Amino acid sequence: MEFDTSSPIWGQLVAEFSRRIVTGTWPAGSRISGVRELAGDLGVNPNTVQRALAELERRDLCRSERTAGRFVTTEEHHIDALRAELAQDAADDFVRRTRGLGMSAAQARRLIEERWNDHHDHPAGA
């Protein structure tokens, strides 16, 4: 993972771990690797990983079990809310950028429809 120097690493880890949860890379109910293991894999300080995971816990996206480790929530409504939040952020970014290019809402919608249909990595209509 490459980090952007313009924002705190722990915040970038929250975004990455959130992405892992909504995409199922870290499935609901699964055990999350230990702080030291994640830190080693990502090349960051364990305290930075700990801070990111604490933020996920604060958002009810994972929970700690004293002797067993940390687990992704099994409450799908939390994951669905996160997915909706991430999609809204992406949509807001798209709107800002297309407006900045001088496109109309109709042109932007048409572009989304074309691009949506060009991506074959997900079933049509999904």
Task: Indicate the percent of residues in helices.
Answer: 55-70%
Mean pLDDT: 93
Helix count from the secondary structure assignment: 5
Largest sheet: 3 strands, antiparallel
Number of strands: 3
Class per helix and strand makeup:
mainly alpha
End-to-end C-alpha gap: 28 Å
- Over all CA atoms, what is the radius of gyration? 18 Å
Poorly predicted ranges: none
**Order of the strands making up the biggest sheet:** 1-3-2
Binned strand content = 5-15%
Principal-axes shape call:
elongated
String of helices and strands: HEHHEEHH
Describe the fold and architecture.
With about 130 residues, the chain is mainly alpha-helical. It has 5 helices and 3 strands, in the order αβααββαα. The chain has a 3-stranded antiparallel β-sheet. The radius of gyration is 18 Å and the shape is elongated. The two termini are about 30 Å apart. The relative contact order is 0.11.
